[in-house]
Amino acid sequence: MAVDFDFIVIGGGSTGASISYYLSGLKGKILLLEKGGIAGGNTGKSSALIRTHYSNDLIASMAKYSYGVISNFDSVGFSGFHKTGMIFPFSRSEEELARKNAAMLRDLGLEEEEMPPKEIEKYFPGVSLNDFDYVLSEPWSGYADPVAVTNSFIQSAQSRGVSVKTGTNVSSVESNSDIVTVTSGNGNKFTAKKVILATNVWTNKLLSDSGIPGERLLPIGASLHSVIYLKRPTSLKGVKPVLWDPPNLAYYKMEGDSLCAVGSLDPAIDKKMVDIDKPVPEEAGYDYIEDYMSRLVSRIPKMGESTIVSSLNGLYDMTPDGQAIISPLDYLGLEGVYVCAGLSGHGFKLSPAYGLITSEMVSGINPDKASFDWRAFRPHRFAEGKPIRSKFEEIGTMY
Ligand SMILES: Cc1cc2nc3c(=O)[nH]c(=O)nc-3n(C[C@H](O)[C@H](O)[C@H](O)COP(=O)(O)OP(=O)(O)OC[C@H]3O[C@@H](n4cnc5c(N)ncnc54)[C@H](O)[C@@H]3O)c2cc1C
Questions:
Q1: Which of 39, 126, 181, 231 is most open to solvent, judged by the fewest CB atoms within 10 Å of its CB?
Q2: Helices 351-362 and 14-23 meet at what angle, rounded to 10?
Q3: What is the reported pTM?
Q4: What are the tens digits of pLDDT across the range 222-270?
């Protein structure tokens, strides 16, 4: 039977955009469907930090590959990448594991550098070095523009023939005799040989609306994350590295010349699930702002003179191990349907790798011969007791 498309990608965030871009390099007719606008979901809220510092070798390799794409993006479009550097401090008790982690990254060809803790004062005069006993630095890391990256992937895919429909909510996906039928909210139907869900926190809603019972849904929940934007005082202006502050469970992204974005590294927040059917407030609560301001000021006292500019709330699509689920969904009776979701709050920097992995998976390449073996991301890994783990559990920089 004839189908309308070879591939339909659902979701126009950084994941769906990257998947469409990588698929557009293959033969076939491709459609991307997005219920809102491009990058209007969690991608648009992202701090968009780009680093390769990870404590699992597979994820670090994917970060290395993705860094290469985003930092050298001219052939795709505009990434807005700023190479500011990034600093990862550790306490004395974590030093040995951090050294091993750095050695693992160097084995992967990443030049993870050691930095004398005092050097942090060069960027942040008056910084408290409490518990900052051993410091790793990635001078090549930084941040990009998540909306620009997503639009560039989309535009480049469109120039290679991909069709894009925004404002199209997919209400169900149904699989029957090698044909997948995608039905939109207004009753339009599109058929394809293969359909990929890049639908972040909304993945289980779509599966549930497609008839998958609750107990068979994917282990993906949604957690609320806030970012506070501040104008730095004059004495802290200038291009500065991103500072990781594990004792305070926070990161400080020095954006442009004079902004600072404060985000959370708190696993308790990652694990606190919210109901996505309830409206998410646009801005952070004031208690949260006060709490994270006091963490920041305890680390960099001069930031007490900064001005609050704005705050935002976004959602992380959390899995139990903080890593994606990339898999065919034939085991749910959805032959020809695939998923790349559950990115757990660190999926922007990995979007090129997700696009590559997913395009290889749906084109039937033997996983042993693929760029990255997607079987590591199978949903069954949790039931099998084989989650993706940090190689250095105690210092865990998994996501
Ligand atoms: C506050 C915050 C800070 C972050 N900071 C970083 C960071 O510093 N570094 C980093 O690497 N990552 C970071 N992340 C994570 C990263 O931004 C995300 O993992 C990534 O952008 C997710 O992209 P996505 O395309 O999977 O999801 P989304 O951008 O949410 O896109 C999914 C899209 O699917 C669409 N959709 C869903 N259901 C349907 C349907 N039924 N029909 C049609 N369309 C549908 C939605 O409208 C949405 O546009 C952060 C995330 C947040 C929220």
A1: 126
A2: 50
A3: 0.98
A4: 999 999 999 999 999 999 999 999 999 999 999 999 999 999 999 999 9
Segment 38-54 shows an average pLDDT of 97
Angle at 183 between CA 181 and CA 184, to 5 degrees: 150
The reply to whether ligand 1 has any atom less than 6 angstroms from the CB of 53 is no
Domain with CATH 3.30.9.10 in the chain: 83-142+221-318
Dist CA 285 CA 312 (whole Å):
10
DSSP assigned state of 180? E
Question: Which residue, among 240, 248, 229, 42, has the nearest Cα to 143 in the 3D structure?
Answer: 240
Q: Is 293 helix (H, G, I), strand (E, B) or coil?
A: helix
Q: State the pLDDT at residue 1.
A: 72
* 244 burial via Cβ count (<10 Å: 0-12, 13-18, 19+): buried
CA–centroid distance, 42 to ligand 1, in Å, is 3
pLDDT single digits (tens) 102-132 = 999 999 999 899 999 999 999 999 999 999 9
92 CB-contact burial (10 Å; exposed 0-12 / middle 13-18 / buried 19+): exposed
10-14: average pLDDT = 98
Quote the ligand 1 centre to 352 CA distance (angstroms): 14
Ligand 1 nearest atom to the CA of residue 315, by list position: 53
Q: Has residue 396 got a pLDDT over 90?
A: no
Task: Report the relative pairing of strands 307-318 and 242-245 from DSSP bridges.
Answer: unpaired
Give start-end residues of each CATH 3.50.50.60 domain in the chain: 5-45+147-219+321-381
How high does pLDDT run on average in the chain?
A: 96
What superfamily would CATH give domain 83-142+221-318? D-Amino Acid Oxidase, subunit A, domain 2 (3.30.9.10)
Fold of 5-45+147-219+321-381: FAD/NAD(P)-binding domain (3.50.50)
pLDDT at 337 over 80: yes
